[in-house]
Write a structure and sequence with these properties.
heterodimer, A: alpha+beta, Jelly Rolls, 2 domains, 8-stranded antiparallel beta sheet, elongated, disordered N terminus, B: alpha+beta, 4-stranded antiparallel beta sheet, two-stranded antiparallel sheet, about 25% strand
Chain lengths: ~500, ~70
């Protein structure tokens, strides 16, 4: 990364920071800017992206990069590598319903698709060796399933990426005879999803440069192939399987990338789009407990050491969603180091409490609480027998019904409760909303945070083997559902 | 829930290959009952005066064909 930044700086000196810089825009960036008609900061960003691609050595082998510049089909059709208004330059041809805005381009899930005019059988130097990145700002939402990108051919040359809802599999596939490259095994989230495949058949699937799966794919020379399409797949010449996923960028490179190149490309795209979409800014989280090795009790949020924990009853550590998790024993719990003078769901400001939970058995078990006896404070109680999550705020119980066994199926689940400024409470599990309740908080208890325990009742310890990971308490902000989905599906810890 | 306009086969044939806004073509598809339909976007955003009749088409709820993933 340091090398990348150093190189970028050298080229930036040559071509300046933008149109008003010391050297003007890079000529290739300027050609794209002219074609799309963009200007100002967006043009500056295109220049930085172009210069960066050259600095990391990918420009020559880059075949396609759609940055979806501007806000119309006319500006978003252009390929950064070759911004000619021709099919041979791999411009996009849109058809059916699309939305074009500052986020990028989004199909409608009904009949919208875009032809890349890119035939993998003829436009790749080696049909076995390629990198494809699909940078999504929105996963498909309105349909039950759909295809993000790709084409089929005869005999069965497949290059495709598709998924099903809810929460099942998302597949990459390439090669002949229906060879699956692999599955993410879950519904993907947001950001850059890439397939990197070498001529030998060795491949990796990456999610925001996180190597999710690798292996080797058998392969034979394809027969008839068809042009790739976005927001669907080209089924032997007929676009089908339309999705309403939103695209921020699509990248095709004429060879597989090294790990370093992938990381550098990811960094460039993240930089171009101002950071990964829908992740939570680090300056928003006041209390953050990763429960990682050597830091079981450490608050890594803004509140700092004042939010560190005390381990009551020997809570241990086990394998978590990200690194280690707190592993409970039926009697242990955590308590905050002291009353830090503020607590979730007090007053009129927004709050979010969220984290990963895995429960091993039934019984009433506390997620977090901060209350004393009477009508003070809050608690989040997971009740197996009632099939609900019970939120108690200022003495009022609010029940959120959830499917039976959802939290005790042996997997981690992401639980989040938000309170908006209108005193509306919403429960999300794995990013899915399980209803809202309204209550105006009245009391701010002067007591410490409890994790896995109810300080008011003196009960609610999490059963033996239960785990908690990446607990966040966010003051003055109710995370949006998109932000929560970003946490659920990113497969990154909040801080890494 | 997506909205679409049902069109006749002859209307479908008239729309194929035509732009409804710059750089975006009509794309009639068939619903679960094999009716030809176009999307709400095409109806509401159509700027092609050669097929101005599109803008007055009534909208109805889309009933898609079952999705067949690429592996099948």
């Amino acid at each position: 990364m340091l090398n990348f930044i150093s190189n970028l700086t050298v080229s930036t000196i040559i071509y300046g920071e933008g149109g008003g810089g010391t050297g003007g825009y890079d000529p290739d960036a300027q050609a794209f800017i002219n074609a799309t008609g963009i200007s100002g900061a967006e043009a500056d960003s295109i220049n930085t992206l172009t210069v960066g691609l050259k600095d990391i050595g990918l420009w020559t082998d880059l075949l396609v990069l759609y940055p979806f510049a501007g806000t119309t089909s006319t500006s978003q059709k252009y390929n950064l590598k070759n911004p000619a208004d021709t099919d041979a330059a791999f411009r996009l041809t849109f058809a059916g319903g699309w939305t074009h805005d500052v986020n990028g381009a989004k199909g409608n899930g009904t009949n919208g698709y875009a032809n890349m005019h890119f035939d993998p059988g003829t436009d790749l130097t080696d049909t076995k060796s390629l990198y494809v990145g699909l940078y999504l700002y929105q996963w498909q939402v309105s349909g039950s399933s759909g295809d993000i990108w790709g084409s089929l051919g005869t005999p069965e040359y497949r290059t495709a990426f598709w998924g099903t809802l809810p929460n099942t599999n998302t597949y990459w596939v390439t090669g002949a005879n229906g060879q699956f490259v692999g599955s993410f095994g879950y519904e993907v989230g947001l950001g850059n999803y890439s397939m990197n495949r070498a001529s030998s058949g060795a491949f990796t699937l990456n999610e925001n440069n996180y190597p999710f799966r690798s292996g080797t794919d058998s392969y034979t020379t394809p027969g008839t192939t068809y042009e790739w399409v976005l927001a669907g797949y080209n089924n032997n010449g007929t676009p089908a399987g339309f999705t309403d996923a939103g695209f921020r960028a699509v990248t095709v490179i004429d060879r597989n990338l090294t790990d370093t190149e992938e990381a550098e490309l990811q960094a460039l795209l993240d930089q171009y789009y101002g950071g990964r979409p829908y992740t939570v800014a680090e300056d928003a989280v006041n209390w953050y407990y990763a429960f990682d090795s050597g830091a079981l009790l450490t608050n890594d949020g803004l509140a700092g050491a004042a939010g560190d924990l005390t381990n009551v009853g020997s809570v241990g550590q086990g394998t978590g969603v990200f690194g280690d998790a707190a592993e409970f024993n039926g009697t242990g719990y955590f308590t905050g180091a002291g009353d830090i003078g503020q607590q979730p769901f007090s007053g009129s400001s927004e709050w979010t409490v969220c984290g990963w939970i895995l429960l091993t058995s039934g019984g009433n078990q506390i997620f977090t609480s901060q209350r004393t006896a009477g009508s003070n404070g809050y608690r989040i109680l997971m009740r197996q027998a009632n099939n609900d999550v019970l939120l108690t705020v200022s003495g009022t119980n609010m029940s959120f019904s959830i499917p039976a066994g959802l939290l005790t199926d042996g997997d981690f689940h992401h639980l989040a409760i938000t309170m908006t400024s209108g005193n509306t409470f919403t429960l999300y599990i794995d990013g899915t909303s399980y209803g809202t309740n309204v209550k105006t908080p009245t009391t701010n208890a002067s007591t410490t945070l409890k994790i896995g325990y109810d300080g008011a009742s003196g009960s609610g310890q999490i059963a033996s083997g239960g785990k908690m990971d990446d607990l966040m308490i966010i003051r003055n902000r109710a995370l949006t559902q998109q932000e929560i989905l970003g946490l659920v599906y990113s497969k990154y810890p909040y801080k890494n | 829930m997506s909205l679409v306009a049902i069109i006749t086969e002859s209307q479908k044939n008239e729309l194929v290959g035509k732009l409804y806004i710059p750089d975006t073509y009509f794309n009639p598809v068939q619903d679960v009952n094999d009716n030809w339909v176009i999307s709400e976007e095409e109806v509401k955003e159509n700027q092609n005066q050669d097929v101005a009749w599109v803008n007055s088409l009534p909208l109805t709820t889309f009933q898609p064909k079952p999705w067949i993933p690429p592996q099948q």
